[in-house]
Structure formats: structure tokens, C-alpha cells
Records
---
Amino acid sequence: MTTTLNLPEADLSPLDEARAQLRGAIDFLELSEGKYQMLANARREITVSIPLRRDDGEQEVFTGHRVQHNFTRGPAKGGVRYDPHVDLDEVRALAMWMTWKCALLDVPYGGAKGGVAIDPRNYSPAELERVTRRYTSELIPILGPEKDIPAPDMGTDENTMAWMMDTYSVAVGHTVPGVVTGKPISLGGSHGRREATSRGVVDVALAAMESRGLAPERSTVAVQGFGKVGRGAARFLWDAGTRVLAVSDQYGAVHNPSGLDLPALEAHVDRTGSVVDFDGSDSLDRDLLLELEVDVLVPAALEGVLTRENAPRVHAKVIVEGANGPTSAQADQIFKDNDILVVPDILANAGGVIVSYFEWVQGNQSYWWSAAEVEERLHTRMLGAWEAVTSYARAHDLSLRSAATIMAVERVAEAHRLRGLYP
Ligand code: NAD
């Protein structure tokens, strides 16, 4: 049984994908149309204009958004993305997926997402600092450790979080480490946060491989994206003994049929800023990476990359979604027909929000855990979620995505039911 019936002709936008997944869960759980309407729309949205004085004195204006999809189970939580393609509907979709991710992993948060339509590569650190501070100051009334807690996402990093924390703290008159997660460790960040998403991706990738009889040392991998998520995922899969045949970034892809030397590749990326022209590899068309003959594919760049068009040519046996929303519903159906196991984003890449939660807990208690403690607790939570989702999927004959979404929506709907409808 599947909840993705009546598929449309074309791939949908991320927001329509997210709403279709919600519709499937609502129907499965036999919840009301009113509940669907409530959860299909964000609780709170803000769009702001961000004027920037450039280093050369010229002025430019950007648009930023923050969407708090739901905060019924706790403060809203979600990353901030700097990317030229950011728009409100994309942020809405990403915020909704954050709600499901937090509910699925049972961290006491709702879901949010933010974004600024800017290409960070074209601006100096000082300019990015000014953009971040102005964006943050526009959002101050709706941010806070008990309201909404941003974290890094595409195009942002721990420096961005340090500027956000400082801007917020200056405005309220005291230091508030818990207003963001993914901070530098010296400012109250958590050990293990930087690599948490990648570690979680690899925890479930190895579990998924085991479920398909794929031993790491005999398995091959391709990873799309070599940023905060993709780079760590490639490295930890390499550490686990798999052969990483190809990786890509926005500039191109590199391939070695005998396996890339990951430490040497990382050194090359640190030196040049891209995977392109890595000595121990051949170059490969960036998007063909998705269609390579590998056992495991990890899309870890952006949404909407696995579509009805390229899905029939995907050879991987297991797809582990490091990115949010990389697979369209049409592609999902094709993967199901071709017996390709898809580990959905809200499960696979939840390691980041789990350790963000650990960071917030440590900050609230002013008490710090060791790297080993963080890693162990992350591992336990990821594997617990993997077990829960796979057994729910088996019991109800569902895809892992449908099972994960249904479990999450049920938890959020239950919180709504218990709190009641005000007034
Ligand atoms: P990032 O900005 O650190 O890295 C993005 C990477 O993707 C870069 O290497 C970039 O060059 C590459 N890329 C961009 N366009 C590409 C293309 N067309 N083909 C191949 N590579 C391309 O971002 P990130 O934090 O690693 O996030 C990646 C994805 O993971 C996003 O979907 C994000 O929402 C999701 N995610 C991130 C986190 C986190 O903790 N950072 C947590 C959960 C989910």
C-alpha cells in the first residue's frame, strides 16, 4: 500500500510535494480536512527587506524570509539558507519538513526555516556579516530560545550563527547562547554539531545497507554535494570501508572507479574550494553522478534533483537523502517499482537537529558533554528512529517516507488535540 496515489503528470514544487505528503498522511490517519488545512499552512511567516551597504559604498537590497510552520510541540527550529534561489514557497516547504523531522525524532521542537535570496560567494565576509545582522534584527521579535532557534543550512555556517547570536544578545541586553545552534564551540556550541548531520546520514546509510545485504567493504557510493553534509557523509562512509566512487559540488563532479582517496580530496577542496581537478580522479558531468552504477547514492546538495526524468536511470540500490526534498513523488514511485530503498530526508538528515537539541540543552544547563557522549547519544537516537520507522513501514506496508511522515504527523496532530483549539 502507498499513500502517493493519483500522481500528477509533472514533478511538483517543493511546497506542493510537502503538501502532497501531508495529504497522504492525513488520509492514512483519517484526520479531518480542517487538520490538513491547519498543517498545510504555516503558523507564522515574515518577509523582510535587507538593505546592504557594499564594501564599495553602493547599496543593494535582498529579500529574506522566516517561516514558523508549527510550534505546538515546542519552540520552532530550523536552518537559515543563503542561496540565490530562495523563495517563500521553498522556505515554507522546508519549514514543514522541519516540523515532521523534529516530531519523528521526538525532539521537543516545532519546525521553522529561514532564507535570504543571496549568493554568498559574491560577497565579502564583512558584507555577509552586515546582511546577517540586518536580517536578524528584523526577526528579533519572533526569535529566542523559547520561540524560534535558527541553525546553519546551505550557504551559512557557524560564523553566521555567531553574528545572529551577537545581534540578538545586544538587542536584548544580555548574552543568549540558546537563540541559535550550530555556534562555534567557544561560544557555547556543542562538540559534534558540525559533523552531526553527516554522522546521522551514515548511521542510517549503514543500517539501510545492512537491511539490503550490502557489506560496507564490498559497497560503492556516490555523494552529490560536498558541503557541510556531503563532505562528512563521504568521509564517514569512506571511514566505514565503502569505496566512494564519485562526489560533486556546484562546479562539477569527480570520479574514480577504484574509489576516491577521501583525505587527499578533502585537502584538495581546502586548498582550491572545489572538488574539480582533483588529481586522483577523472572529471564527470555534474548531474550524471546521480546515475552512476553504485550501491548507495547520497544526494546532499539541494531539493528536486531526483525527478521522473532521471529516476529511471538511477542504478543505486539504496538512496539516503542527506539533502531536504531531493526526490519528487514521481521519482519515489519509480524507485519503489525498481526496488530501490529510499531513506527519507526527515529521518536520514535528522542528526543535525538532534545535536542542535543537545546543544540547546547543554546551553540551558550551562553544562557541557564530551564529543564521545554526543556521538553516542546521536547514534542511539538515529538507530532508534531507523528501527521505529522501518517496523512501522513493515507493519503497514508503506514506504519509509510515508511511514516517517505519518508517524510525525500523528505526533503533531496529537499535540494539537491535547492542547485544544484556542479560543
Ligand atoms: P552547504 O552550503 O554546506 O553545501 C552545499 C553543497 O552542495 C556545496 O558543496 C555545493 O557546491 C553543492 N551544490 C550546490 N548545487 C549543486 C549541484 N547542482 N550539484 C552538485 N552539488 C551542488 O549546505 P549543507 O548544509 O551541506 O546542506 C545541503 C543539504 O542538506 C540542503 O538540502 C540542506 O537543507 C540539507 N541539510 C543540512 C543540514 C545541516 O546541518 N547543514 C541538516 C539537514 C539537512
---
Amino acid sequence: MKKLYVVGNWKCNPQTLLEAKRIFGAVSKMVKERKSLETVLCPPFIFIPGLKGKKIKIGAQDCYWEGKGPFTGEISPDQLKNLGAEYVILGHSERRRWQKETDLMINMKVKAVLAAGLKAILCVEKESQLEGSLKGIGDFNNLLVAFEPVSAIGTGKPYDVNAAGKMNLTIRKKIKKDTPILYGGSVNSGNARDYIEKAGFDGFLVGGASLNPEEFVKITRILI
Ligand code: PGA
């Protein structure tokens, strides 16, 4: 049975560890553990040490490409791994926009994350980003790709399911046949099913709805 993924990206939320623990605890309590479902939450770096639970894997929202050294403010893949993180989101459109991340920078990050034995969730909106970010990478074993159309991110306007399905096929042609491809962009419990059943995705990258435990868990239930 193929594995499906629901990855929650908390972005720059919440404001306190107490609230982070409340959300995480509520999801942990309600979410079902299944071999065919991987539930991942990606909090801000600072909350990672405070969030532990058997049913939920932990991811980070970014990391640096160097392992250590004079890089003020950066976090390395090994530091994340040592805290128990297993996934790292890379190339999110918000970082491309606000931190001016380029495909070359994201490519270096993907390489560093894979070299550390972590799983990379590479966000792309178009083919050129996929190619640029995966340049020189031959081993896709720990890679997941998330199709994240900017028009759908944080807008409440999910991308057209047929168009998303076409993009899914386009991405699939460029990567291995068992690399998970997720959809991200205004996913909620009402629209999620179509992206699996009609557009053929292997799961979701969920932003806003991942801060609401009931809604997030409802999305996971669609996959089991
Ligand atoms: P959204 O965000 O679900 O709030 O649209 C998705 C994302 O940024 O990954």
C-alpha cells in the first residue's frame, strides 16, 4: 500500500511554546496511526525540542546548507537531526519571495539535507524550479516534492483540481515513480479529497488549517 502524507506547516505561529504544545497535543490525541499515513508537523525551530509524540513526525521549515561555522542565525541539518526532526521543508514560496532564495540556494539546501539523512520536502510552483533545485541530485530516496501554486497559498483559493493534476503528471515525469508528490495551497477538509482522488497526489502540505487541530486531523482522516 502506498504511503500518503499530511504535512502541517505552522509558518511563524504560534507565539508561545505553551500554545505550540496545546496544538501538538490536541493533534496527537486525535490523529490515527496507520502504516499508510505519515503525519508530520513543522513548527518554528524553537519549538522543536518541546514537541514530542509517537504518532507525529517532526519537520523544520527551512535549514542552512552548511554544517557549522560562522553563519550567524542559521540552523544546520545536523542540528535539526539531533533534535529529532526527520523532515525539512525547502524552497517554500514565502522564502523565495521574502528571503530571496534562489534555485541554486535551494539546491544546496536539498543536497545538505539529504546528506544528513533527513527527508527534504521540496516546494515548487513550476518545472524550472524543480529542475534547478534538483540539479546534480541522483538519489531521490529521501525526497518529497510539494506542488505549491502561489495563487493558492494562504489565499483561501485552492488551485483548480484538473490543472493541479496535470502539474502532478509533469512533475512525475521528472522524478522517480515512487517519490511522493504533495499538493499545497488552501487545503482544507472540504477540498482535500479531490486532490487525491481526481488529481492523484500523495498527500498535502497544509498551512493555515494545520493550526486548527480538529481541521488538520479531519484532513488526515480523508487519507485513511
Ligand atoms: P495554506 O499554506 O494552506 O495556508 O494555503 C500552504 C503552504 O504555504 O504550504
---
Amino acid sequence: MKLLVTGGAGFIGSAVVRTAIADGREIINVDKLTYASNLKSISSVAHNPLYQFEKADICSAGTMVKLLAKHRPDAIMHLAAESHVDRSIDRPSKFIQTNIVGTYQLLEAALNYFNTLDGEKRENFRFHHVSTDEVFGSLSMHDPAFTPETRYAPRSPYSASKAASDHLALSWFHTYGFPVVLSNCSNNYGPYQFPEKLIPLIVISALNKRPLPVYGKGENVRDWLHVDDHAVALLKVLDYGKLGESYLIGGDAERSNLDVVRAICSLMDEAQGFGPHEELITFVTDRPGHDHRYAIDASKIRNQLGWRPSVGFEEGLTQTVQWYLANQAWWQPLVKERYSGERMGLGTSKRTV
Ligand code: NAD
Ligand code: TYD
């Protein structure tokens, strides 16, 4: 299979690229290389004959049309997006542009390409739109988990832009008969995650003995899934998902933020041989509109596609902390170059330590 992946130099996209190549698939990675990308995350496959890279912006329909005509992929997996909620609160415009307009331009180009296909190539073509559980909004502790039938209720500029892109993708299925599958996943963690997201931010701050910023009281709950498990799930949805349907992917690992931060602190105590790192925990101004809880009912993908997570959260978190400690050359330049003058991850927002 020749798979065109958008956003393959990002956190999840790079895991998909590594997994798909190990699986013997041919990959065309289309990425604009924004601040969130890192080609080092795919250095292990960069010289593999199955891998090709195209630096391009999904918002440019003309470029997408040309790339599709050039590579003639069997499928597209669309991950390119602006992905950090805090940045969407501070400056929403790029989220509207890439996540909504970019998805629209890509759908137009892809439909145009699909309409040139015939026979088996047309029959088997798939467009997999990769999305998030955040489109469903905020749960209380007693609410049942999200299911594919849960009504969309996004509450941040990021989740609203992703919700809009999900609706566009499914409307291309219903209106134009374009073969779309959709997935909505919970919070990912693991190696190669940009150090503005909670887990790498806390590991790196703890290593540097800096305050560990916990928004509000740290009671918000996220469901955590190892990124390599997500990559396997995405390829299953691509291969076997029913067209026009959505698959919810989760890790069965709901944890409060404070529990996650404390778990990282004890792993750091062990790794460094001193502590307690918990003394660095600092409660800071809450994120505006902070969704309280996300939870996934993953029974559809488990029962219909036979997927379940293989890495438990405690095991995955231990490996992830060890990875960040052992791979400082991967993240040091990001922290130095991209955050000069700013506190890591807090950008221009009011959530100062
Ligand atoms: P990321 O921010 O790490 O990577 C995004 C990638 O997209 C980067 O390589 C970036 O250069 C590229 N990109 C951004 N704008 C582009 C554009 N206009 N044209 C081409 N490329 C562009 O994101 P991630 O965490 O890997 O998330 C990937 C996808 O998965 C996103 O669609 C996100 O909404 C979704 N998702 C993420 C999570 C999570 O926990 N991180 C959970 C569920 C779903
Ligand atoms: P994040 O990694 O930004 O993912 P998302 O907002 O997509 O869930 O944040 C995960 C949780 O951690 C979220 O509830 C916000 C919280 N958080 C903090 O408490 N402190 C931080 O410095 C960051 C970045 C996030």
C-alpha cells in the first residue's frame, strides 16, 4: 500500500510513519514543518526506500492536487493540524486556517484525485481523518464515557476547529460519496512529543528543577494512550474501518493531572536518586474553559476491529520518562530555540508560574 500521510513529522504522525514502514507500507509524508514538527523523529526511516518526504502546506489546494497526481497514493491519512489547546486560546487563527481551511482544501484535492481513479484503485481508496475526543466536550466524574453516538460539544478553539474538520470530512462522504473513515482518540503520550504538552513538559521541568505547573487544582481527568498503540489502531481503522463511520480510540487509563504529575515526580526521584520532586509542584491559574474530564468507550474498535491497547499507563509512563532522560539531544534544541524568552509551554497566556 502507498499511503500519503499528512503531518508525519509531528508526534503521532511520526509514530504512524515508523509503524507503517515497519509494516512494509510505502509512505509519502507531507508536512509543512511547523514549530511542532521534528524530522529527527523519523530519522530512523529517512533513508528507507519505502519513505518519501514532501514539504508542503495542506492549505495550498494547488500543491495538494499536484502531489496527489505525482504520487497516486492508495490512501490518505490526515493528521496535519495545529494541536495545542493553550496556543489555540492565545492565538486561534492558525487553528482555523490549518484545521478547518486546510482540511477543506485537502478534501477538495483528494476528491478531485479520487475522481480520476477507476477499478480496484478506486474501490479500495480510503481517506482517514484523524481526530480527537476533545470534540465531545467536557464530562463530569459521573457521566458515562464518550461513544461514537455522543453529541459534539467542543469548548476550546482547538476542539471546535477539529469538530468542524470532522463534520467537513463526513459531509464529503455523505454528499460526494468520498470514502472517509474517522477516528477520535484520547490524549497520547510517549517518545517524540513536543515539550509543551503536559507529560514531556513536567519531565523536562523536573529535570531542570523548575516549577511544575499544574492548572487549577489538578483535578481534571484525561484518558492516556501510548502513541505506538494509537499508530497501530489508526492503521486498523484505515484498513478495516467502515466508510462513513467513526471509531473511538482510548487507553482505558483515566488519571487526574495531579496523579500524572505525582507519578512523574516519583519516577524522577528514582531516576535521579534524590527528591522529592513533588516539592516543585506549583498550582497555577487554570486554563480558560478547561474541560474537566474526557473518557472513551472503546468497545466498537475492540469488538469490530479487534484492537486494544498493549501498553499499560504505568509501564508506558516509566518508558517515556526514561526516553526523555536518555534523548536530551532530541528535545534540548526545541526548548532552547523555540522557547527563548518564554516559560516553557506557557506562551503568552496568563498561566504564569
Ligand atoms: P503535532 O502538533 O505534534 O504535529 C502536527 C504536525 O502537522 C506537525 O509535523 C506540523 O508540522 C504539521 N502541520 C501543521 N500544520 C500543517 C499544514 N498547514 N500543512 C502541513 N503540515 C502541517 O500533532 P500530534 O499531537 O501529532 O497530532 C496529530 C493529529 O492527531 C492532529 O490532527 C490532532 O488533532 C490529533 N490528535 C492528537 C492527540 C494528542 O494527544 N496529541 C490526540 C487525539 C488526536
Ligand atoms: P495537554 O497536554 O495540553 O493536552 P490537552 O489539553 O489536549 O488535554 O494537557 C493535558 C492536561 O494537563 C490538561 O488538563 C491541561 C493540563 N496541563 C497542566 O496542568 N499544566 C501544563 O503545564 C499543561 C501543558 C497542561
---
Amino acid sequence: MATETTDTATAVDHLVIGAGFAGVCAAIKLQEAGERDFVVVEKDSDVGGTWHINTYPGAECDVPSQLYSYSFALNPDWSKVYSPQPEIWAYVRRVAEESGTLDRFVFDTAVLDVAWDQGAQRWLVTTTNGDYAARSVIAGTGALAEPALPDIDGIDGFQGEIFHSARWNHDVDLTGKRIAVIGTGASAIQLVPELQKVAAQLDVYQRTPNWIIPRNERRFSTLEKALFRRVPAAQRAARAAVYAMLEARAPAFTRFPVLQVATETAAKRNIRKAIADPGLREKVTPAYRAGCKRILISNAYYPALAADNVELVTDGIAKITGNAIVTKDGAERPIDVLVVATGFHVTDPPIAEHVTGRDGRRLADVWDEHGMAAYKGTTVNGFPNFFQIVGPNVGLGHSSMIFMIESQVRYVVDAVRTMRREGYGAVEPSADVQQRWTDAIRERMRPTVWTTGGCASWYLDKFGNNTTLWPGQTFTFRRQLSRFDVEKYDVEPVTHEELVTA
Ligand code: NAP
């Protein structure tokens, strides 16, 4: 099936989808590489991606900000070790603004369709705000962008206020309300302590407990900030120390899960310190190896659960009525507000629904057959010049995603440079190269805690494969992507004169 580039589409060299950390990084690095003809389309009204959207009370980063920031834009002004959402959003916005790329960003523009036009060697990208014909598409749509709503009997008939943690309704006054939170993941453990402070009654519905270790939080002193500002090498050293500390944790996830016993001990101490009730202690203690699900950090969650106005409900939800949640034991708990903190669509990313490749096949259909797969987490056979940032097996359980994003963006920019230099109109990884990569990843997944840890997690797809996380050290990933390895790609020369630019 051939798609034809229409006359009305705006021709651009590169179209970046999403203005989160990945999209902003891509824009900056494309510009630095001398690529001037690109746009960044973003469905929301500003940059920031997940850090623009997730405004729930208590939203903070669980990776130290010294590392959860671009290597090329250190921020001496972080207020504390783990920054709150408004600070991270302001940071990424400032970096975008200071880079001089913001005029390439088109906001309030959702991508509807991305189809390869073989004749033109371009992607025809249909958006809610006009069409583009792009030589390459760089998708920075984020792995944790589309809320997953629970399929619970009666939820549509709930008459009170209901919203997802990633779509917080700030118009709802929560003071003195009876609130329920479904889910006890990374988002929930941050918002529960905030809700506990204002709610008349807070019911927390837990399906599976998580391992939660203490948060070594502290504010940066004025002196430290001044030092970071005046001596950037000092901040580089602080960043390197955080990197090394987190990287040292990787083998406990990827090769020797038994080492997670140390984490479990710290988490159990965290429980004992905050919770006196033996029944509650038991309910919050996981029965699987730490690291199998994301290890969470909090000093506030357990004390909140132990508060008088909070009940941890573990009986399982049977249904939701107009004004209450009914559990499987028949108990009915009336509520005014329902917060669903039930996570995101990860192994079935919505962007894949919109992308149609060389043979007229949708990426979602290709991935539905065998699970998500991409060469080096970035490129997919049958989808020329389509680059995914934070694609399959690029996620992390132990360090900063910004490191992975920068690694991928370097690779993509090198691909763009190579194409220009060599006069290629289309590049895609050959099928066997991609298969070998995927097979190697699967092999390396075998001893990991995500495979052996005895839990169900959002890292695993419907086939039971972990298609989300990188099973190794982050520096290995960076090394693998240090150069665009064009010899592993099927290439086509440019067939359109207009594509050959200086
Ligand atoms: P999540 O970790 O996927 O947690 C979802 C929670 O909802 C789990 O407790 C899950 O229980 C529960 N749940 C899902 N469907 C349910 C249903 N039908 N009935 C009852 N319970 C249900 O989602 P999240 O908390 O939004 O976090 C997602 C990821 O975002 C994190 O792992 C992390 O990578 C990222 N995040 C990061 C930060 C940060 O500080 N940087 C903060 C928030 C989120 P089960 O465990 O039983 O499935």
C-alpha cells in the first residue's frame, strides 16, 4: 500500500514527536549538528512531557536530580537531592528556551497518522494541526505517557469525582473528603501522604505491595549551590558520584538478584520504623524479590498508611457503585473522590497504533505478533528512517533515563549525518540484525530479577517477555550506540533530487 505525499504537507527534514526530555534533547542535538529543518510536534500546550503532565500532589523524581538532568545543561540550583515536579518542569523548559530551538516547537498538536511514502522516501505525518512530509521521524513519545485505566465493574457509573494520577483535577477541593486511591505504585506512594493530610478518610486499595526503601533526602546548601555555579567541575564530580553509586546497583538486577536481600532488609526496617500494627506490617511486606517491580523510595508513605484516617484495603475490588467501592468480601466503603493511580500503557504504546511502515503494516500489529522489538531500542525493520527514543528495552530500574535518552539521541544524530554524507534516502535495520539483537536481549533477561523475581510487573508483555528494560549497565548501552552502525542497515540511495541538500 503506497501512501502519497500530498501537496499541502509541509516538507521538513525531521519531525520529532513529543516535547518531553527526549524531544527537547533531539531538537537541541539536531540543531547542534547543523540540522535546521525540523519541527517538534507536541500534543500538550508546553514542553516537559511527563513532567508537564504529572502534577499530582507530592510528584517528585525518585532519581537524584544531579543525574536526572542533561549532561550538557547542569543545573546548580536544584533545591534538594530529589527534585519536585515543578522544579524539573521549569528546568526542562528553561533548557529548551535557552537552546534557541523553541520556535521549532508546535504545541497543541496531536499526531494522528504516520505513514511511509516509499515513492517520496518520506513519512507523511498527519496531525490535528496540518500535515508534514518528513525524511525522518524521531518519536520521543515517552514510555509512561498514556494512562492505563482499570477495568473494574461499574467504574463508569461512579457519580463522584474520578481522575487518574497523571490527569490530576486541581479544581476538586479534597479537604475533608472521603477519598479512595486504587494502586500502590510509584505515583500512589507519593500522593497518598499528601492526601492523608487533607482527607477525612482515605482508603488505599492495594493489589500487590511494593518494596519501599528510605529516601535519603536533603536540601542543597547555599554554599553547595554557589560551588556548583562557580566550579562546574565540582558539580560534574557530584554527578559522577551519583552515576557510579546507581550503576553499582545494576548487577543486583541483571545478574545476581540474591544481592537484593540488602534492599529487602532496608525496606523491612523502613516498615518496622513507621508501622506498629503487625497486621498492617504484614500487608505491606512483599512476597517477591526486591527489584522484580520497581524499587520505590519514601519516608512518608508508611507513616501515612499508619495514620488514623487511612485504611489499607487488600481484599480486592469487586465493583464500584455510584458512590462507593465494594470489595470481594462484600464490604462497601462510600467515597466522594476516586483517584486511579494504576499506571500506564507500556508494552502496547499508543504511538505504534498510528505508524504504518513500508509494507503497509502498522507498528502496533507487528509488535502485537511477537512483542515490542527494535534494533538497539531505536530502529525497526520495515520502518525506514523511524527512530524511537526510549523504545523497547531501553527503560531502567536502577538509574536515570536521561542518560539513555542522550545515548539514543547521539545515535540518531549520527544516523542523520551518515545519511546526508552518504546520500541515503532510507535506512532500516535488516530483519536478521534486529532478530539477533532481540534474541540476545531475551537471553540476557533470563537471570535478571525481572524474570526470576516471582512477581507480575508492567515490565512484562502478554507473552511474559520483558520488552521494556535494558538488561545491563547503562555505559554498555551507551557504548553500543556510540556510532551509527550503518553496515547493519539496509540502505537505499536518495531517489529524489530535492532530498540531496548541502
Ligand atoms: P505502576 O507502578 O504501574 O502502579 C500501578 C498500581 O496500580 C500498582 O500498584 C498496580 O497493582 C495497581 N493496579 C493496576 N491496575 C489495577 C486494578 N485493575 N485494580 C487494582 N490495582 C491496580 O504505576 P505508577 O505508580 O503510575 O508508576 C509507573 C512508573 O512511572 C513507575 O514505575 C516509574 O517508572 C514512573 N514513575 C516515576 C516517578 C518518579 O519519581 N520518577 C514517580 C511516579 C511514577 P499491581 O502491582 O498488582 O499491578
